[in-house]
Amino acid sequence: MSKSVQNTLSGKVVASAIRRRINILGKNSTISSAISTLIKYKIGGLLVVDEDQSPIGVVSKTNILGAYYASLPLDSPLEHLMTSPALFCQLDDPLEKALGKMKEHQIYRLYVKDPENDSVVGALAYPDIVAILYEYCSRCPQSLFSQTPDSTETGIERSLVADCMTRGIKSVNMDELLYQVVEELTMHHMGAILVIDADGHGRGVISKTDLILAYNHGVSLETPASEMMSVPIRSCRENDMLEEAIRSMIFSDVHRLFVKVPNSEEFSGVFSLTDAARNKSGSCLACTSSRIQITSH
Predict the structure, then answer these.
(1) What is the pLDDT of residue 148?
(2) Is residue 147 a part of any domain in this protein?
(3) Can you tell me the distance from the alpha carbon of 112 to that of 5, in angstroms, rounded to the nearest whole number?
């Protein structure tokens, strides 16, 4: 009989991690209003409802990129580009089950229903799961950030970025056009892509957020990547502590870091909140869910 593997999410349910605010728009709302909502609340998707306020789909940044690529007018209704149906989980579902469903369907969030009345009560996305992991680590006496100069090293082996990053770098050249950037992001299911110069050096980043803002401002898809890229490139290194990289993303309000090889400016991959959530554990390789108790919210 196989032995079950404990991790930081073991025993925790969706209710402990969800955000209660749900961003909702009607099916006849415009693409422009969806972009404004996504940017204002710093989210990746919103729920679309019909005239009876019943959920009928989801509009994400990926959907909006598709509309940009297809040159749909900004006043087009959301029902023309939404993904349907919306996918749900229950308040009392194990977090690991919800995480598995997100991975299976290659989606960034699930909407959450109360099993007692079937009403939509919140949303669960990868950053919410990472917040649980970070809370667990930050309250643990063995946490990297709980150590003082006088602390005695316990010999605990700590996780590094290299342990759960996504290896390999996709990039576009500075003179490639935005429609080519959209194609690359869509093809590889990425949230952002590195922009490089003629010598292959990273010069900036273009994210889905950059592109939907360009769409909303009427920027042509024939615009060079160099004119839309963001700088500087937020990065970490393969040998950085996992806990440090997660903290950097949380407090910088970014969803990914581009990873450099130790002692080099060469990029070897990307470390995202999605990677951190799928790791399902804290920054210590000896970490198990039985070590400390976290109070559910």
Answers:
(1) 57
(2) no
(3) 26
Which of 139-143, 223-227, 278-282 reaches the highest mean pLDDT?
Answer: 223-227
Helices (H), 18-77: 31-41, 61-69
- Say how many domains are in the chain: 2
The CATH number of the domain holding residue 172 is 3.10.580.10
Q: Are 255 and 248 in contact (CB under 8 A)?
A: no
Whether residues 105 and 166 share a domain: the answer is no
Identify whether the C-beta of residue 132 lies closer than 8 Å to the C-beta of residue 12: yes
For residue 9, give both structure tokens: 């999410």
CA distance 150 to 65: 52
Q: What percent helix, strand, coil does the chain show, rounded to 5?
A: 30, 25, 45
Residue-range definition of the domain harbouring residue 215: 161-279
Chain centre to alpha carbon of residue 174? 25
Q: How many CB atoms lie within 10 A of CB 156?
A: 12
pTM score, whole prediction: 0.85
Quote the crossing angle between the two packed helices 31-41 and 208-216, to the nearest 10°.
140
70 with 117, same domain: the answer is yes
Read off the DSSP letter of residue 33.
H
Confirm whether 228 is domain-assigned. yes
Q: What is the DSSP string of 208-241?
A: HHHHHHHHHTT--TTSBGGGT-BSSPPEEETTSB
Q: Is residue 189 one of the residues assigned to a domain?
A: yes
Residue matched to tokens 């390999």: 168
Confidence class for position 2, pLDDT limits 50, 70, 90? very low
List, in sequence order, every residue forming a beta bridge with 257; answer none if it has no partner: 271
